[in-house]
Amino acid sequence: MIKCVILDDELLAISYLKLLCEQIENVEVVKAFNDPNIFLNEIGNIDCNLCILDIEMPGMNGLQVAELIPDSKKIIFTTAYKEYAAEAFDLNVVDYVRKPIKKERLIQAFQKARELVQNTQKKDFIEWNTNIGKTVIFTDQIAYIKTSEIDSRDKDIILNDGTNIVLKNLNFKNLLEMLPSKDFAQVNKKEIIALSSIKVFSTNEIITTITLDDVGFLKLQVGEIYRKKLSDLFGK
């Protein structure tokens, strides 16, 4: 499934593009924006794998916006101007679609995006410097991640078998981009949980399947800014 977000300063162009997307199988428009600044403020918290960006916009153009988007989100550019093509492909985007957009051409762009998204999703491990050297960690073995109490730049990982590993000098933003978004969620400013490790979820607290010798099942407090996204995951 391609879950896309649209950015175009013209409302008519947004409506037309949404209409075309609705006619294409396995494509969902999650949200649409007509302001680049609002888009950039929200895109990091939106569950999508593709951004469709208009290039020619007042204030900040699509090329500038693309440089600020997380690498995990693929990009298709749309524009009425052919002179941007070389710059667009320098940014390693999926495709460059000229306006007026035709459905057949958009289908081709989505097919390219689908192949790239599927290839990205097949990567089921992360590789990073840890307390035991450069290490490959398979994401389906990760139960829980928290900010290290010794050094906040580091992240402590607990695996399903209870093994502890320390990721060195890695922030949550970059770490979340490396993890499959469908399998992990940030609970508060200091903790990430694998969805498979959740036993009970309420709007304020998560009880996990992880057991600690001194307190029993690990309980996590849900931060206010993460509550809605977690609630959406569980349909609450």
Automatic annotation (TrEMBL):
It comes from the Bacteria. GO terms for cellular component: cytosol; protein-DNA complex. Residues 3-114 form the Response regulatory domain. PROSITE patterns: RESPONSE_REGULATORY. The keyword Secreted does not apply. GO terms for biological process: regulation of DNA-templated transcription. The keyword DNA-binding applies. The modification 4-aspartylphosphate is found at D54. Keywords: DNA-binding, Phosphoprotein. GO terms for molecular function: phosphorelay response regulator activity; transcription cis-regulatory region binding. InterPro entries: CheY-like_superfamily, LytTR_DNA-bd_dom, Sig_transdc_resp-reg_receiver, WalR-like. This is DNA-binding response regulator. It comes from Chryseobacterium shandongense.
